[in-house]
Amino acid sequence: MNRPSTSERVPVTPRGQRTRQKLLKAAEAVFGDKGYERASIADLTRKASVALGTFYVYFPDKQSIFVEVVDELGARLRRLIAESTAACTTRLEVEREGLRAFFQFVRQHPNLYRVVRQAEFVDADCYRRYYDRFAKGYVRGLTLAMEAGEVRRMDPEALAYCLMGIGDFLGMRWVLWEEDMGLERVLDTAMTLLTHGLPSDAGAARTHLQAVPPPKAAAKSSKPTPPKSKPSSRRPSRGPRS
User: I need a surface site. Which of 145, 167, 197, 239 has the fewest CB within 10 A?
Assistant: First the structure.
């Protein structure tokens, strides 16, 4: 179910904006720790240190604030990546710095994975919107890189989701599951994959040789080949008898 926007409840005063942000930050933590089903509005307001009735000034119900949390996380992540890659001059630099920014965001928002994945069951439209919006910008950047000759031409949307999947699992393994300060080697591996692909040098050479068609056979002459003469079965004639 696609929830209506809560934009009409966005406060205009600085104090109201701060209160709303406190509720959103508290919701991110509570939904991540307890899960959507177990979390209550009282849990959210207690975490935000605001009165229970204050919640309804900004959000109509629990699902509305959950959707707002997911949408805001996506917007903040996209903004951070855009800012982190603004000075990059090549597509590979964009990919490396974009991954680095994503790892930074996961470190700052350890509940990101849990909250976003719950969205599939809380609000399917919100869940898809999170990835669709991310992919839209990715496709635009990859398309420009293809037109500039930096990236081989292929389906940009399929490529975008491939690269998004790489980042998603690397962040889960080396940031969320086990904080690893040596992330440069992870970035190096990802960049090597993007630059050279999977085949080894020998494998690439074999692939190239297999892709080369065999030389064409020499064209046959248009003249018919004369048939080979067969030995005669007749006995040679004898001279006149004496």
Answer: 239
The token pair that represents 185 in the structure block = 């080697």
- Please state, as a whole number, how many other Cβ atoms lie within 10 Å of the Cβ of residue 73: 20
For 92-102, the pLDDT digits (tens) are: 999 999 999 99
**pLDDT for position 226:** 55
Q: Which of 115, 116, 141, 144 is nearest to 131 (CA)?
A: 116
Beta carbons within 8 Å of 180's beta carbon, 6+ residues apart: 174, 186
Distance separating alpha carbons of residues 179 and 57, to the nearest angstrom: 39
242 band by pLDDT with thresholds 50, 70 and 90: very low
> On the CB side of 61, how many CA atoms lie within 13 Å of its CA?
5
Q: Give me the residue label for tokens 């919640």.
A: 55
Nearest to 170 by CA among 200, 150, 191: 191
